[in-house]
Amino acid sequence: MSRDSSRASSESIVTRVIHRPYVWAIVALLLLLVINLGKDPAYLGISVNAATGNLSGNVIDILRASAPIMMIAVGMTLVIATRGIDLSVGSVMAVSGAVSMEFMSTAGGGTVGEALSAAALALAISAALGAVNGVLVSVVGLQPFITTLITMLAGRGLAKVITAGQNTSASNESFRWIANGTVFGFPVVFVIAGIVVAIVAVLVRRTALGLMIESIGINPRAARMAGIRPVGILIAVYVVGGVLAGIAGIFSTASVMTVEVAKTGMAAEMDAILAVVIGGTSLAGGKFSLTGSVIGALLIATLDKTIVFLSIPSSATPAFKAAVIVIICLLQSQRIRALFARRRSGPSSLTPPPRSPAQPRKESVSA
Amino acid sequence: MSILIDRPTSVSEGGSRPSLVSRLKPNVESLPTLAAVVIFVAMVVYGEVAYGRIVQFSTISNLLINNAYLIILAVGLTFVIVTGGVDLSVGAVIAISSLVGVMLANQGWNPIAVIIAMILIGSVFGTASGVLIQYFNVQPFIATLAMMFLARGLASMLSTTPERLADDSPIRLFSTEWKVIDGPKINDLVTTPNVVIAALVVLVAFLVLHRTRLGRTVYAIGGSESSALLMGLPVVRTKLAVYVISGTLAGLAAVVYTSKLGIAQNITGVGWELDAIAAVIIGGTLLTGGAGFVLGSVVGALVLGLMNVLITRDGGIPPEATTIITGAILLVFVLLQRLVVSRKRKT
Amino acid sequence: MAITEPIVEMEAISIEFPGVKALQNVNFRLFPGEVHTLMGENGAGKSTLIKALTGVYKIDSGTISVLGAPRAFSGTADAQSAGISTVYQEVNLCDNLSVGENVMLGHEIRGRFGINWKKTNEAAHDALVGLGLGDIDPRRPLSSISLALQQLVAISRAMVSRSRVLILDEPTSSLDANEVEGLFGVIRRLRDQGVAILFVSHFLDQVYAISDRLTVLRNGEYVGEYMTPELSRSDLISKMIGRDFSTLAALGSNRGRAVHATGKPFYSAKNLGRKGFIDPVDIDVHAGEVVGLAGLLGSGRTELGRLIYGADRPDTGEVRISDAITEVHSPIAGLSRKIAFSTENRRDEGIIGDLTVRENLVLAVQARRGWARPLSKREQGDLCEKYLVELNVRPADPERLIKNLSGGNQQKVLLGRWLATRPELIVLDEPTRGIDIGAKAEIQETIAALAGEGMSVVFISSELEEVVSLSERIVVMKDHRKIGEIVNGPDVTAETIVDLIATEGNVA
């Protein structure tokens, strides 16, 4: 009896994982690794540097590269769950990098204190940019895409103004350690990213925040009627998105200790959106999966590395990623789903939901 | 339906003075566009007073020549935004279209074939966006964002270095300077075929929007898509058409831009979608759709162009700040629209 | 009027949506030159029938014939090209365009250089003149004319496309008496020209003023077709609201037990109102008392319920709860003052479809606690266990998505959501609408039991029998105001309310 039930539950875990939308991401990830293995059987090898105890190898590189993507993907997940979008993440990364580099190159002392101050300042400004997005969306009621499109382009301009249009470098070993250092052999960026993801996960899943975000994303009117106040939650979500993009900016500038104002964070919003949709969160908002987005970020990092490894010109990646987004959007659309449903269970079950766009609504009679 | 019966008096609303009131009414609708004109004039006056040499042939000529591509882009986006949609891919479409065009031309293609190819590349991207939006219910900004990265990515695959168009390429003829009025020294009123193309685009767009059923359907969709459907208008076809128009005009803008600069690069046109959207919004088109004028968008494009001139003349504003200023202006106008619309709802 | 062949004939129409039988075996026929009214309360299936006719909804069974030939339209546009035009309550025109453009959209007169606006506007003017609206300048923006005129513009549009059938879906709900008279003038004129008019309204006076024939629907079922002069008002009302004695029999009636309406009320509002929404109303609710809000659709019964909870912000009035002055201007304010509100609009304002039953159930409790103090798994489990069992939700699986439950069970979960907040006053707006009879009886029992435990209940329903059997006092609403208050007693029946509504004249 007890054996039966335990088998049932273990089965349900397997089926549950299989039914997760990101299972395909895991499959794709493994597939990419297999392709790499095909070219170099030692691809997955991890070597330990005897002197420092550091791990090195392609897998470690992938983890390192996935850290900033993870950050923006997690922020984007929350924003998209509320039926929003944040196109400004890449620019916020550039601003964050510009602020920290400019601060450290001006201060010039190379001390730990300066590194910490630079990071704190960068994150504060990132949070402020996120707050601007949040207020415009929730209080003023602007559409998220136009709001964040403006901050995206103005943010890029801001980064250029901060550095007077120059790619700015600084030297600070403590700051550099963030990107290049290791903890117990693992890259610091990956460890930090893991901790941050864990904090966000606890914040949304161990409190009621996640439930409220999903409620707002699924049915804003019903959520309001149930007593949820959307304004604060929306602002919080965009601020979190901004801070996470700020962290990503620090990650991606610390490795080279240079901010390239025109390049840092370029097209990052694409990576973030891609990671989110790969992870199974719908662009229409509602239910979200942080785990899915993290896996999505790992997949994107692996993809980037694979493309380099296979010596395909890396300039092809954005086109490829855009194609993937288009395909996922197609798969999520009613039309394609209806097609699949028909294939699966015969034409009789093809009854599209009686939801016509023309359905007149009661509340529109306000004049 | 021509049977005349006594009209029921209770429904007449005292509307028997159509002359003045109703004739002025449409002008209220076009207030934002007038505001854009006022802003443009104010900028001209300010520029003339502060820096001088604004109201003169060469400046005006350059303003038009340098912004012909932006005017064309803004016209295309006007169609899209009037329906309540948006097209973020136009800048990237210019990049791929001009890059392909230059490369084909350099391989010795017939220049006319090259130009047609460049325009068609735009049409293809526009069609793809439209199909995604209309048939697969993808939100417009997501679909066109994907097209933006697709176009940008494909362009980067072709080349990441500037591709130069041969100076003797016939395509460059579009930027031949025609002297219209010979002014003193270099202060001539000049124009180029590019400017003429832009003007034609504006004219045709104006006629399409105001004198064809397609154009009226564009406005009807922006006013209320569900009403347009219930009225039996061809909503699906029209929404697809606006994205095709926007893409095609982006292709045409690529021709204009390439002929003027003679160089194409994968990073050409980064952020131009913002400029074009800003031009449309400044020109009085509602971001939420339903109202707007092509001529307004032209004024909007000129406002942005003049702003660049003034920033250059001023010298005190770092050129990096341009996007911040554009963004700020766009934000102000979007906020104003929001205010006006919510006012209107209340009354 | 001697034509005997119906222009539209619908026979044994049935439509089923997931969990709801929207129409069952409904018949309808429409003759040229008549005004035929479709009557029924909210949810009776009037709109569904119209959408079936125009092809917006696919029918599951039955036949639709137009001029004797079976037809299946693919949508409004298709129906329109066959001469069947629909004018909706909320006027589906584009108010960013001019009057003339709205009349002529898709029929503009074209010349060599595209649309000839002069001729187009002349044609629009002719169409308007045909309806006696000759003094509206076609060049005026649509938004500059009143809603009543917009309605007539929509009718002109239908006439431009040479429609022989005109469907008017609740065209009068936002018009004043003069405007209604004007509309009726136009309707009569079209009728005399031989147009077949399908009229939908729930205003009795108007129905009697304009219609030649009427068909009554109730809960998606066909009640009957009658010649208007042969059916008395009270007969009509009882046909519309029905009598479901079977479900009420088991219920201990509150009738004649107006025992709670003494002493200080728990909730008391003076002049509670909102401009353009509902005229100021006084209402008291005592602890343990069920106060019914009765009135036809559009009478303001829902609006009053929303103001009590704070779903809409009142702009006049003084509210006292437990004798202390307070303000309830948002849902969370209502919640924190121990008020709960179960909406009539379950799909748009009630359930959060993609969340589980558990998440839906705990949502209001959680919202009141704030995000930082989440309910533990255990607390959530306890709430689910308590309310899923108590309200007999089937299946009693807390991890099922709520959208996959039947309407009645969704309603029970929503009721559970509000009861879990332990409210002292609960406003229930049509809690028994559109659900099966078993679930209905259970919910009625629950309401009686809650009042028995001392909870104050405001009960809103379009079924007067239900209101009478559950309420101690009944507030009667009409035309967005309170027209009376009835203390329930042995001699109070649904007819008492019907008479009050029928005799209280329309305020012009």
TrEMBL record, chain A:
Membrane topology label: Multi-pass membrane protein
Main location: membrane
Keywords of the record: Cell membrane, Membrane, Transmembrane, Transmembrane helix
Annotated region described as Disordered, given as residue ranges: 344-367
TM stretches of this protein: 21-38, 62-80, 87-107, 119-142, 183-204, 231-251, 272-301, 307-331
Protein localization: Cell membrane
GO MF annotation terms: transmembrane transporter activity
Keyword Membrane: yes
Any one GO cellular component localisation term in the record: plasma membrane
PANTHER family the record matches: ABC TRANSPORTER PERMEASE PROTEIN YPHD-RELATED-RELATED, GALACTOFURANOSE TRANSPORTER PERMEASE PROTEIN YTFT
Record-given protein name: Monosaccharide ABC transporter membrane protein, CUT2 family
Organism listed in the record: Salinibacterium xinjiangense
From TrEMBL, chain B:
GO annotations of cellular component type: plasma membrane
Pfam families for the chain: BPD_transp_2
Lineage of the organism: Bacteria, Bacillati, Actinomycetota, Actinomycetes, Micrococcales
Compartments reported by the entry: Cell membrane
Molecular function GO labels: transmembrane transporter activity
Keyword annotations of the record: Cell membrane, Membrane, Transmembrane, Transmembrane helix
CDD domains: TM_PBP1_transp_AraH_like
Transmembrane segments: 31-51, 63-82, 88-105, 112-132, 189-209, 240-257, 278-311, 323-341
The protein's name in its UniProt record: Monosaccharide ABC transporter membrane protein, CUT2 family
InterPro entries in the record: ABC_transp_permease
Record membrane topology: Multi-pass membrane protein
From TrEMBL, chain C:
UniProt-listed Pfam families: ABC_tran
SMART domains: AAA (SM00382)
CDD domains: ABC_Carb_Monos_I, ABC_Carb_Monos_II
PROSITE patterns for this protein: ABC_TRANSPORTER_1, ABC_TRANSPORTER_2
SUPFAM superfamilies recorded: P-loop containing nucleoside triphosphate hydrolases
Keyword Phosphoprotein carried by entry: no
Keywords: ATP-binding, Nucleotide-binding, Repeat, Transport
Domain ABC transporter intervals: 8-244, 259-504
Molecular function per GO: ATP binding; ATP hydrolysis activity
Keyword Transcription regulation: no
Protein name according to UniProt: Monosaccharide ABC transporter ATP-binding protein, CUT2 family
